[in-house]
Design goal:
The complex is a heterodimer. By secondary structure, chain A is an all-alpha fold. Chain A contains 14 helices and no strands. Chain A has a domain of 213 residues: MetI-like (MetI-like fold, Orthogonal Bundle), CATH 1.10.3720. Chain B is an alpha/beta fold. Classes of the chains: A mainly alpha, B alpha/beta.
Chain lengths: 314, 687
C-alpha cells in the first residue's frame, strides 16, 4: 500500500518531464527569433543580442532546456515581457478567483447532476428520464458562452439581483465572493453537468439492475435508502473519474467564463498573455495547469482505494 | 481469491432467450425474459410443444392446491394468482391462475423448468415485480392478511420481516462495497429497531447460527473475501434477521458446488426447525426437492399441473409432465450392474407413457490404440502482483494428469469448481499451452506440432462448450455456423457443404429447413444440438464436451445426452466428458476420472468408481449428490462443513510425488496422506 503510494507519486515525474519539454519547445514553435520576439518590435540589435545572451539562446538546445528547467524547479518561470513582473508571482496573484470558480463549478455540477441522474435512473423510460436526457443533449449542444449571456441577461439585467462582473477579493466577505461566483460557476460547469448527469444515470441504471439491489428491496428497504446506501457508493468510481477530469479540464472553460464575466483569474491572464505574445506567461500557465491535471488524476486514482474495498494496490 | 463459480448453471433459466447476448450472463431482467417467453409460448419450450400438453391434461382438482394435512390455518395462501407482463401493449399472463398453501413449519417446493413461472410466483408474493410492467391479480394472504392490496410502505414492513427471500446468485447478491456485517445489521435496524451496537451483537449471533467460522472477526469483512457457499450463508443470515414466518428460497443452491449444496440444504432444514419457519423452496432439481420438501407443486408453462405430498409426487406421479420430469432425473446408483452407458427414458408428454430405453451397443474399440493418450500433463498459472515483480504463487491447475480415451469410449472428468477439469479439457485441445506432458492424438504428439500442423490435427478433435447461448455467434445463421469449419479447413466446396449441413442437422434431430435461422430463434437445447452439429462437421475422432449439458433443463438434458450416445454408437466418437454432475456422469460414461485440486485422485471403470469408491474425496462427492428419494428426507445427513480448497500454492511449493495403487483391473486410486484421515471419517459417515 505505502509502496504503491510512493511508486504512484513517483510515476508522475516522467509525465511532468514530458510536459516541461513541450512547454519549453513552445518558445521555438513561435515564429521568428525568440530573442527578437521577447525584445519587442522596437528593440535594437544590441538589445536583442543582450537577451540572447541572458537567455543562453546560443547554447545547444539541451543545455538551454536544462538551464530553463533548473530555474523552473526553483520557482523561477522567467519574467513577463509585458509587465516585466516575475511570471510566478503574476500567476499567484491571479490564482484565487480561478480556484474558487473551479470548486464552485464542481459543486454546482454535483448538486445538479447527481439528483437528476439518480432520478432519471430510478424512473427509467419515464417522463423525468426523458426530460433529463433532453437536458443532457441540450447541455452538450448549447455553447457555454451563450449560457453565460443568458445568465447575465436573466439575473443581472432582468432581475438585477446578481453581480455579473468582477471578483471582489476575500476581504469583502465570503458571501460577496459566493454571489459573484455563482453565475460564472454555473456557466463553467454547465456543459460538464450534462455529461456527469448522463454518467450518473447510466451507472445508476447498471447498479440498480444488480442482484443485490433486488436483495435490498427484499429486505424491505425503501427506494431512497437503496439509492443512497446501496447505489451511490458504487457509482462513485465512474463519477470520481469524470468529475476529476472535468475539474482538471476546467482551465479551457475558464478562459471563456472569465472573459464573459470579467473575472481577473488565470483564464483572463492567459488571454492577455496570448494577445501580447507574452511567451513566458503562456509557458507558466500551461506548465501549472498541466501539473494540476496530473495531480488531480493522481488523487482520483487514490480515491478509488477508499471507495471500493475490492481495489487493493500492492 | 474467493472461489470462482465455474458453471453458471443459471443459464438454464433462460432457454427461450430471443437475444442471446442479453442472456449469456445472469438473467437479471425477468420482464424481458418473460416477454420472450410469452411470445414463444406456443412455439417451442425446451424442445417440446407446450400448448397441447396443457390443453389435453387439465389435472384433477383433487390433486391441485389445497391438500395439506395440518389443521392450523396456513401461513401463506395463494389463490388464483395471475401475474401478467406487458408485452407489446398487451398483458400476457406468465403465471396463470395458480393456487397453493403453505402450512406452519412446512416446506413446499415449487418445481419446474425454465420459464414455468416459478420465480415469478415468488417475486409476486414479495410484490417485487416491476409495477410499471407487471400486474398481479388474485389473492395472496399471509396469516389471513391480504398482501396484494397493501400499499408499498406497508409491503416494505412485510418484506424482510414476515417474509424473507434468498436468491440464486450468492456471488452477486451482496453489495460489494458494504461490509457483510452492515448488510445484515441493516435489516435488524430496519425491522427490529435495534441500536447499532445491539445490531452488531445480533448479527454476530446470526453469523454463528449459519455456521460461519470466526463470525466475530468477519463482521467487518467485505463480500469478496467470502466464497460462494459462505455468501449464501450470509444471505440466509440476512433473511433470518427479521425472524420471518416464511422464507422464500429461489434456487438457493443452483449456483453452488454439490458438496456446498449439501451443506446449505442441511443448514436450511436445521434453521427451519429451530426458527419454526415455513419455507417456499423454488428449484428445478428433483433431487433437491426430494431432499427438502414436504409437499411439491409442479409448475409448467405458468400453471400448476400437479400438487401433492413429495412422496406421492415421486411414487405416484399422475400428470404426464411430472412423469416426464421424474424420468429424466438421473438417480445415482441406478446403473448398478450395467457396464455400458444407458439412454434416458423419454416420456411422451401427451400420453405420459415412458419408452424403455434401448440398450446402447458396445461402442468401445478395445483392440485399437486409444484415440487420445495424455501423460504427465501439467499446467500451472503464475500469480504476479505486477508485470515485472517476481512470482507470488502458482495455481496448480493441472498436475501430472494421465489418462487415455479409446475410440467409442466416454471418459468423464468429474470434480468441483477449481479442480482443473476444464483446464485439462482446454489443454488437451492445446487451447492453453501446458507446462509439460504429452498429448497423443492417434499417436501424434500434439505438443510437438507447429501451428499449421496443429490446425490440421485440430479438425480431428472438437469441443462443445457449456453455454450454448454464448458459443454461437448471434449474427451468423445456423447454416453458416456449421459450414464454417468445413470451409476454413477446405474440406468441401460451398455447395457440398450445404448438403452436408442438411445431413448434420438431421443427425442432431433438427430439420434442414432451419439452416437460415439465427441462434436466437432456437431454444437452449436446440442450440446445444447446433453446437454438436458444428462439432461433428469435420467428422472428428474426439469430442471434448465441457459441461455440455449442465446449463440445460432436465428433460432437454436427457435428450441431448441421448443424442450424444446415439452419435457415439453411429460414428465411434471418443468423448472426454467434463462435468460436475455425478448423476449424468454415471449415465453416460464408460470410465470416470475424479479430479481434485488439479490431480486425478481416482480413475477407473464407471461401475467400479460408483460402486466401490476408494478415495475419501470420491466418497465425499458421491455422498453429497442429492438423491431423488423422499424417504431420505427426514434422515439427518452428516455433511462436513469443509470449504472447497484452492489450488493456489505458494511460490516455493514442491508438488509431492503421488503413488497410485490398483483397486481392480483399470481402477487406480491415489494413495492419500494424513490430511485425508480426519476428512475420511466424515466421508465414511456420509456413506
Amino acid at each position: 500500500m505505502i509502496r504503491y503510494l510512493i511508486t504512484r507519486v513517483l510515476s508522475v515525474i516522467p509525465v511532468v518531464g514530458v510536459v516541461t519539454v513541450v512547454v519549453f519547445g513552445l518558445t521555438y514553435l513561435s515564429p521568428g527569433d525568440a530573442a527578437a520576439v521577447l525584445a519587442g518590435e522596437y528593440a535594437t540589435p544590441a538589445q536583442i543580442a543582450a537577451i540572447r545572451e541572458s537567455l543562453h539562446l546560443d547554447d545547444p538546445l539541451v543545455v538551454q532546456y536544462l538551464h530553463w528547467l533548473g530555474n523552473v524547479v526553483q520557482g523561477d518561470l522567467g519574467n513577463s515581457i509585458f509587465s516585466r513582473q516575475p511570471v510566478f508571482s503574476l500567476i499567484l496573484s491571479r490564482v484565487d478567483p480561478t480556484i474558487i470558480l473551479a470548486i464552485a463549478a464542481t459543486v454546482v455540477q454535483l448538486t445538479v447532476a447527481l439528483p437528476l441522474g439518480l432520478l432519471a435512473a430510478q424512473n427509467r423510460g419515464g417522463i423525468s428520464d426523458r426530460l433529463v436526457s433532453l437536458f443532457g443533449v441540450a447541455g452538450t449542444a448549447i455553447p457555454p458562452f451563450l449560457i453565460g449571456y443568458v445568465l447575465i441577461f436573466t439575473f443581472g439585467v432582468y432581475f438585477g439581483s446578481m453581480p455579473v462582473s468582477g471578483f471582489p477579493g476575500f476581504d469583502s466577505g465570503i458571501w460577496e465572493v459566493l454571489r459573484h461566483v455563482l453565475l460564472p460557476a454555473t456557466m463553467l460547469g454547465f456543459a460538464q453537468t450534462a455529461l456527469i448527469t448522463r454518467i450518473t444515470r447510466a451507472s445508476a441504471i447498471e447498479v440498480l439492475n444488480q442482484d443485490f439491489i433486488r436483495v435490498a428491496r427484499a429486505k424491505g428497504l425503501d427506494e431512497f435508502t437503496i439509492l443512497v446506501r446501496h447505489c451511490l457508493k458504487l457509482i462513485a468510481i465512474p463519477l470520481a473519474t469524470v468529475v476529476g477530469m472535468s475539474f482538471a479540464g476546467m482551465l479551457g472553460g475558464v478562459v471563456i467564463t472569465e472573459t464573459v464575466f470579467a473575472i481577473p483569474g488565470i483564464g483572463s491572464l492567459l488571454v492577455e498573455a496570448i494577445q501580447h505574445r507574452d511567451v513566458p506567461v503562456i509557458q507558466g500557465v500551461l506548465l501549472i495547469s498541466a501539473c494540476v491535471y496530473v495531480m488531480v488524476n493522481l488523487l482520483v486514482d487514490l480515491s478509488y482505494l477508499f471507495i471500493d474495498p475490492r481495489i487493493k494496490y500492492t | 481469491m474467493p472461489s470462482r463459480r465455474e458453471y453458471p448453471r443459471n443459464t438454464e433459466r433462460c432457454s427461450f432467450g430471443r437475444t442471446p447476448e442479453k442472456f449469456t450472463g445472469s438473467c437479471k431482467q425477468p420482464k424481458e425474459r418473460l416477454r420472450v417467453f410469452s411470445e414463444n409460448r406456443s412455439q417451442v419450450l425446451g424442445d417440446f410443444v407446450v400448448s397441447d400438453v396443457i390443453d389435453l391434461y387439465k389435472p384433477e382438482p383433487s390433486r391441485l392446491g389445497v391438500r395439506r394435512h395440518e389443521i392450523a390455518p396456513p401461513v401463506l395462501s395463494v389463490s388464483k394468482l395471475v401475474t401478467s407482463f406487458r408485452v407489446a401493449g398487451r398483458w400476457a399472463p406468465v403465471v396463470d391462475s395458480i393456487s397453493f398453501e403453505i402450512g406452519e413449519r412446512e416446506t413446499v417446493a415449487i418445481v419446474g423448468e425454465s420459464g414455468s413461472g416459478k420465480s415469478v410466483t415468488a417475486l409476486s408474493i414479495m410484490r417485487l415485480n416491476s409495477p410499471a410492467s407487471s400486474k398481479v391479480e388474485g389473492s395472496i394472504t399471509l396469516e389471513g392478511q391480504e398482501l396484494l392490496t397493501l400499499s408499498q410502505a406497508e409491503m416494505r414492513r412485510i418484506r424482510g420481516n414476515d417474509i424473507a427471500m434468498i436468491f440464486q446468485e450468492p456471488m452477486t447478491s451482496l453489495n460489494p462495497v458494504l461490509t457483510i456485517g452492515f448488510q445484515i445489521a441493516e435489516s435488524l435496524i430496519l425491522h427490529r429497531s435495534l441500536s447499532r451496537s445491539e445490531a452488531e451483537l445480533e448479527t454476530i449471533r446470526l453469523l454463528e447460527k449459519v455456521q460461519i467460522p470466526a463470525a466475530k472477526s468477519r463482521f467487518h469483512e467485505y463480500p469478496h473475501h467470502f466464497s460462494g457457499g459462505m455468501r449464501q450463508r450470509v444471505m440466509i443470515a440476512t433473511a433470518l434477521a427479521g425472524k420471518p414466518k416464511l422464507l422464500i428460497a429461489d434456487e438457493p443452491t443452483t449456483a453452488l458446488d454439490v458438496t456446498i449444496q449439501a451443506q446449505i440444504l442441511e443448514l436450511i432444514k436445521e434453521l427451519q426447525k429451530e426458527e419454526g419457519m415455513s419455507v417456499l423452496f423454488i428449484t428445478h432439481d428433483m433431487g433437491v426437492v426430494a431432499e427438502i420438501a414436504d409437499r411439491t407443486v409442479v409448475m409448467y408453462a405458468g400453471q400448476v399441473v400437479e400438487a401433492a405430498s413429495t412422496e406421492d409426487i415421486f411414487k405416484r406421479p399422475e400428470h404426464p409432465y411430472t412423469r416426464s420430469l421424474l424420468s429424466a432425473v438421473s438417480k445415482l446408483g441406478s446403473m448398478k450392474g450395467r457396464r455400458r452407458p444407458m439412454r434416458f427414458p423419454i416420456v411422451d408428454r401427451t400420453t405420459g407413457l415412458s419408452d424403455v430405453p434401448n440398450e446402447v451397443p458396445d461402442t468401445v474399440n478395445e483392440t485399437e490404440r486409444p484415440v487420445l493418450e495424455v501423460a504427465g500433463l501439467t499446467k500451472r498459472f503464475e500469480i504476479r502482483s505486477s508485470m515485472f515483480s517476481s512470482v507470488k504463487g502458482r495455481v496448480y491447475a493441472v498436475e501430472n494428469v494421465s489418462f487415455s480415451v479409446k475410440s467409442g469410449e466416454t471418459l468423464a472428468l468429474v470434480g468441483e469448481s477449481g479442480c482443473g477439469k476444464s483446464t485439462t479439457g482446454r489443454t488437451v485441445m492445446r487451447l492453453t499451452e501446458p507446462l509439460s506432458g504429452s498429448i497423443l492424438l492417434d499417436g501424434i504428439d500434439l505438443l510437438k506440432l507447429s501451428r499449421p500442423e496443429l490446425r490440421k490435427q485440430r479438425s480431428r478433435m472438437q469441443m462443445i462448450f457449456q453455454d450454448p447461448f454464448a458459443s454461437l455467434n448471434p449474427r451468423m445463421n445456423v447454416g453458416t455456423a456449421i459450414i464454417e469449419p468445413l470451409l476454413i479447413n477446405a474440406r468441401a466446396s460451398r455447395s457440398e457443404a450445404r448438403d452436408k449441413v442438411a445431413d448434420l442437422l438431421q443427425r442432431v434431430g433438427l430439420t434442414p429447413d432451419m439452416v437460415n435461422r439465427f441462434p436466437h430463434e432456437f431454444s437452449g437445447g436446440q442450440r446445444q444440438r447446433i453446437c454438436i452439429a458444428r462439432a461433428l462437421a469435420l467428422e472428428p475422432r474426439l469430442i471434448v464436451a465441457d459441461e455440455a449439458v449442465s446449463a440445460l433443463d432436465v428433460s432437454v438434458k436427457a435428450q441431448v445426452v441421448n443424442l450424444m450416445l446415439d452419435l457415439q454408437a453411429r460414428m465411434g466418437l471418443a468423448y472426454l466428458f467434463i462435468s460436475h454432475d455425478m448423476a449424468v456422469v454415471e449415465r453416460v460414461s464408460h470410465r470416470v476420472a475424479v479430479m481434485y485440486l488439479g490431480e486425478i485422485v481416482e480413475i477407473g471403470p464407471r461401475e467400479s468408481i460408483f460402486q466401490n469408491p476408494q478415495h475419501p474425496y470420491t466418497k465425499r462427492l458421491l455422498a453429497a449428490v442429492p438423491i431423488a428419494d423422499p424417504a431420505r428426507r427426514l434422515q439427518k445427513r452428516l455433511v462436513s462443513n469443509d470449504e472447497i480448497m484452492s489450488p493456489v500454492r505458494p511460490a516455493d511449493y514442491v508438488p509431492p510425488v503421488r503413488q497410485y495403487r490398483d483397486v481392480s483391473p483399470g481402477h487406480a486410486v491415489m494413495i492419500w496422506g494424513e490430511e485425508w484421515e480426519r476428512k475420511n471419517l466424515t466421508g465414511s459417515l456420509n456413506n
